[in-house]
Structure formats: structure tokens, C-alpha cells
Write a structure and sequence with these properties.
GO terms for molecular function: D-alanine-D-alanine ligase activity. Its main location: cytoplasm. There is one protein chain. Helices cover 35% and strands 22% of the residues. With 325 residues, the protein is of the alpha+beta class. The protein has 3 domains: 12-99, Rossmann fold, CATH 3.40.50.20; 109-126 and 199-322, D-amino Acid Aminotransferase, Chain A, domain 1; 129-196, Dna Ligase, domain 1, CATH 3.30.1490.20. The radius of gyration is 20 Å and the shape is globular. Mean pLDDT is 91; it is low at 136-140.
Length: 325
Amino acid sequence: MSMLAPARHSDPAVFGRVAVLMGGSSSEREVSLDSGAGVLAALRARGIDAHAVDGIPALAKALAGGEFDRVFNILHGQHGGGEDGVVQGLMEALGMPYTGSGVLGSALAMDKIRTKQVWLSLGLPTPAYVRLGRGDPGSGPGQAVHAAACELGLPVIVKPSQEGSSVGISRVFDDAGLDAAVALAACYPGELLMEKMVEGDELTVGILDIGGTPRALPSIRIVPKGEWYDYEAKYVSDETQYICPGLEGEDEDALGALALRAFAAAGCRGWGRVDAMRDRDSGALFLLEVNTAPGMTSHSLVPKAAAQLGVDYEELCWRILETTL
């Protein structure tokens, strides 16, 4: 039985004709197609007139033709993905209701560096970092990278500032590994980010708007079989453990409150997911990023957290779509 307040609507006709926006042309296309297939099946199982739309150009054409009444956006990533504010701007211009964050929240959360700048300005905890420019002048980017690692102190994480799903990320424990890590991250558009590695528990908190009020779902502590929660552990491995709730008592309450503050600070709305780390020695919490269109695959985290409250996958999709009404 669901531990949330009852859904506001029970008649699927209230949603009209729904576009499930998936696929696209970002580096996360395959994950988005998997998420979209699940959402589409769930909405149809609840009697909703839902239809798959692959990518932003196809959506623009369909909306121009008046084919849909609202959009369930399950695109992931940027540059043809639906998390960077571009498709949100299109839908705002057309007055089309859609799931997830608006233009500002989507664009900001997609940029990890600028999200961290906002959090730090509000006193919210996030790992120390250095922005790595492409082709820094002076002694060359290679030396700038080694100087940044020296400033932060090894070990560090090197990653693209504007990718998701652990794409292009490296964990670097010694100076010799820095150049290869930067070369991998540089395969993707945008700035590069080096941040101090927090060693400890990897945690995530789903956020869902219930009746106009954002609510933190039970946290999840992620225990991968390997050394860390990489792409393989997220989407392929069946050996990753998900402990929900991830923390207990006051610690769980503190994490949920921090996630809600981080979500609001980034200008996000509707639903999403906030990722964090808890330092193994001090117990301190550190914010990593906000996902404004989290995965909805069989391995995904928001459905696991909702299930802890008695909300199954179909009900979760209905609740997310209700945020557009």
C-alpha cells in the first residue's frame, strides 16, 4: 500500500494524448531508449494514450502539428538529450506542459561546475574542485592538470562537466594517471572538472513533487561489486547492491533535507535525483550533482526508492505525469 497521499486524479483521460520523449542524440541515447520503453509501457498499462517520440526534431514536428497535449520527457544528457534546457525552451515557447525541471534548472544542473558554484554560494557542501580549461595558455594543459591535482590533493575525480551516466569519468590515485583521465574526459563537449575524491558511501535521494510540495524519497546506498559505481555497475551488472533506506534515523533525515535544499538551489522542480557522498572517516555529506531526468530502467534508482514507500513503477510514472497538470 502506498505511503504517499492519494494521486489527485484517477481518470487517464485527464492527461489527453501524451508524448513519451526518448532516445535523442546524446551520449546517453541507449539508456534513454531503455527508460522510455519502460515509461511508455507503464503509462499505457494505466490506460493513458501515450506514444513514443524519438528525439527533439521529431517532437518539434509533432508539437507543430498539434499531436500532443503534454510531454513525459525521459531524454537523458545534452546535445540532443533533454536535460540541458533546450527542449524545455521549445516546450515553454509552445505552452506545452512537460515533466521535470524548467529551462533554468535543467541547464544549470547539466553543468556540474556552475551547480557547484551555486551550492557553495549558499554554504551547501560539495567536494573541492578545479575547473580545467581546454588548451589553457602558458605552460600547457598537461602541467595545469598536474598543478590542479597538487592543489586538491590525490586522489581526485576527473570528468566532463556536462555529461551523465558516469560517461567519461576517471578516478585518479597517482600523478601518472592524470593525463589519460583528462584525455578521456576531453572526448566529450564542454569544460572539464577535477574534484577531490570523497571516499566512503555513495548515496542518492530521489525527489518527487507531491501535490505541489517536493518530497525526498528514501535514500539509497549503492554498493557496487567493483571499486566504484561506473557505467557497468549502473546499467549492466546484476551484482550491484542497493540498500534502501541508505541511512537511518537523524542521518537519513539530514540527507533528505540536504537533497531538497540542493534541488531547490539549482532551480529544479517536478522530480529528479540528487547524488551525494558520505565521507567514511568524518561522516560528512557532500553533494555531487542533480539529475533532472533520472533513469527509469530496470536498474534505476528512483523506482527503487519509490518502491520503499509502496509506490510501484506504474504508479510512479502516473505521479510524475501528474506534475504536468
